[in-house]
Amino acid sequence: MMKPVMTGLLVALLMAGGYARPQDMTTVTTSGEEISDHLDLEAVASVFGDSKDLEDFEKRLNDPQAQISNLDLNGDDKVDYLRVVEAAEKDTHLVVVQAVIGQDQFQDVATIEVDKDSQGETRVQVVGDVYMYGPGYIIEPVYVRPPLVVSFFWAPVYRPWRSPYYWGYYPPYYRPWRPYPVHTYHRNVSVNVNVNHTYNYTKVRNSNTSVNLHNEVRKNDFAASHPDKSFSRRNEGVANKKELQTQRQTARGKSGHPSGATAAKAKGQKTKASSKKGQTAKAGAKTKTKSKPKAKSKAKSKKKK
Question: Cα-Cα-Cα-Cα dihedral of 271, 275, 278, 280, to 10°?
């Protein structure tokens, strides 16, 4: 009768001593780290350019396989669901990405601002939320072809997208996952960045209309509850995420973990370089092979003399 009791005690002691499954040992929450490291906006810009519409864009942001986001703002050990809300006025469309952090609680993460200029050209900017990324953290993606998602904006009859999902109610495909360590996240997300696009940085927003539209739909519940965790508080003396990245690269001698697009592009360039080197080697080998018969024929002519 003692064996079952001793076994139960041993199991209880092991659990109390902190023994856990391997996945439990890699638990990471955003609260103790640089928040902006947990969502690569170059990856967001890339996914937007490859989406067929805003519903598809939201699905890609929350795809359990792609894992574009690593944000866990509410600290529940699950990456937050990102919902997409759109507002529009004439030739301007504002797409807001918000983290769902609780019952009727949301936090703006970034906006994608699309407007048509006087020449009829469409301009896209991905603007990081000031609380999350600091002021003036803006990416201007240049896509290899006009995004399909944008083409629908200018249709004669168009209804702006507003996500139907909220806390506790998510689409069937969605399965929350645990956040990764930052370096693992950036390594994983780089494969989802289309290196054929270009990602330029600026500090100036193109559209005043976007700013006004944003004021109408803005959600900052996490920022209101945690004012001490704003980018300016987390990184005193640093203007925004871009400046922080530059300082890190300088400090590490450009050997640190690059952003998703930078890492993916470097990998693509390395592959191209290797391919070019292989082609050069093959060309050299062919040249050597062709030169041998000439040497042989020259030796024959000397023998005849």
Answer: -130
Q: CB under 8 Å to 73, separation ≥6 — which residues?
A: 30, 31, 35, 80, 99, 101, 107, 222
Q: Do 219 and 106 contact (CB within 8 A), yes or no?
A: yes
Structure tokens at 73: 């703002």
28 near 180, Cβ under 8 Å? yes
Residue 47's pLDDT band, with cuts at 50, 70 and 90, is very high
Question: 0.70 cut: is pTM over it?
Answer: yes
Query: Amino acid letter at 196?
Result: N
Q: Residue 167 in contact with residue 100, Cβ under 8 Å? A: yes
pLDDT at 263: 54
> 138, 202 in Cβ contact below 8 A?
yes
Instruction: Say which DSSP state 39 is in.
Output: B
Residue type, 117: D
Give the closest residue to 160 by CA, choosing from 51, 54, 45: 54
